[in-house]
Amino acid sequence: MKEYVxxxxxxxxxxxxxxxxxxxxxxxxxxxxxxxNPRMNIVAIISAVILILIVIFxxxxxxxxxxxxxxxxxxxLLIPIILVCVxxxxxxxxxxQASVDSSLSMSSSSDISKNNQDTKKVEQKKSDKKAxxxxxxxxxxxxxxxxxxxxxxxRICGDMNFYEGQKIKLKGQFLRTNDFSKSEFVIARxxxxxxxxxxQPCGFLCKYNDFSAYKTEQWISVxxxxxxxxxxxEKMPVIxxxxxxxxxxxxxxxxxxxx
Length: 259
Description:
It is a single chain. The model is unreliable at about 90-130 (pLDDT under 50). The protein folds into 2 domains: about 5-85, no CATH class; about 140-245, CATH 2.40.50.140. α1 (about 5-30) packs antiparallel against α2 (about 40-60). It is built from 9 helices and 7 strands; from the N terminus they run ααααααααβαββββββ. The protein has helices spanning about 5-30, 40-60, 70-75, 80-85, 95-100, 100-105, 110-115, 125-130, 150-160; strands at about 140-145, 165-175, 185-190, 200-205, 220-230, 235-245, 255. It is α/β, with parallel strands linked by helices and about 260 residues long. α9 links the parallel β1 (about 140-145) and β2 (about 165-175).
């Protein structure tokens, strides 16, 4: 006698297993960070565990006969799986990034800071800041690592006068809009507060005479001196570039202000 298999439960197990696999893979490969803030990793892991438990508790029902089978209720869950496999990942391109207003791109630290005040509100005296960064004002170049870009960005924008005259070296993407002068560009990183929908370029206005060899989104390394200047009616830190060079892309594509 042929052994009975409940097709509905079999499809349910298959769909739940695939979904849990994709969640675990997305976290392990860090590809989930292309869509949401890394703090959502724990949510994805918990969701994957719940799906696996559902699969385990559904296995005994595979041989349980059911008069009415609702396969379509589970097949519809295959749609997001198919989309993940077929639709290429792309959040922004050169045209979209270049259309961002330059003043918004460079002053967005104030908005991001407001989003993080509840969890990261720290008051420090200038003497304390020297202890945090002993290189300030001692003639040594502050070499900002890829991982420290976000925190360094907030520190400089939060107390730009303190960093006046500080030599700095950092890496980011070349960004330039049509309304910049011939000597202006921005070195920026794409910042994510919550998810891919709120991505925005955050960086520093730079001044340099020759950057014709560089294109939008190209990764560059900048070495220069920070000066506080008024730009379009707003004071901001501006890097007077002494050295500009091509660079390898950062390991993490985006930066996060509330990890």
